[in-house]
Design brief:
- The protein is mostly beta strands.
- The chain is built from no helices and 13 strands.
- It has a seven-stranded antiparallel β-sheet with strand order 2-5-12-7-8-10-11, with no helix packed on it. Strands 1, 3, 4, 6, 9 and 13 form a six-stranded antiparallel β-sheet that branches.
- The two termini are about 20 Å apart.
Length: about 160
């Protein structure tokens, strides 16, 4: 489990915004004194429009097949993302989720994640498997040039039979 009420959790996360491709969106992961939060503002200028944060994960056991995310939303659509490295290949997997303003908890089954490369779906990619996951991330790219705030409470890895 990742506990985002811990004051140092946000320090494990790295930000990647669209400025890597010329955009001017902002985003960061920070701690507000009680919880970690993903905040910023999307801009569509210069073909921009995304902000993301990610963190390395310790190895997961192969019996894990789902993840539960507890968060306080802002009404925007986000992506929960996993990155794998297998046989020398890096593959990103995404699952979009809509938020409401307020507390939510959602469970994501690994077999519902879609393999992607730079926003495009990949065909023929292997299914997401826990033992291959190296990173977890969050991304916003909903084409709405406004501020965003997603407060994360916890991530719990699960085994659903």
């Amino acid at each position: 489990m990742i506990d985002f009420t811990q004051p140092n959790e946000h320090q494990y996360w790295t930000t990647v915004n669209d400025d890597v491709m010329g955009g001017i969106s902002t985003g960061k992961f920070s701690y507000d004194g009680s919880i970690s939060q993903f905040t910023g503002e999307l801009s569509l200028a210069n073909n921009g429009g995304f902000s993301s944060v990610n963190r390395l994960l310790p190895p997961l056991t192969n019996d894990i097949n789902a993840v539960n995310l507890s968060y306080i939303g802002d009404g925007r659509t986000y992506q929960l993302r996993f990155t794998t490295w297998k046989d020398g290949y890096r593959i990103n997997y995404k699952h979009e989720f809509e938020t409401i303003k307020g507390q939510q908890s959602k469970t994501f089954n690994f077999n519902n994640f879609k393999a992607v490369f730079r926003g495009r779906l990949l065909s023929g990619a292997p299914e997401l498997a826990a033992q291959d996951i190296k990173q977890i991330g969050l991304l916003i790219a909903d084409k709405t040039p406004l501020p965003f705030v997603l407060k994360i409470q916890s991530v719990e890895f699960l085994n659903f039979k």
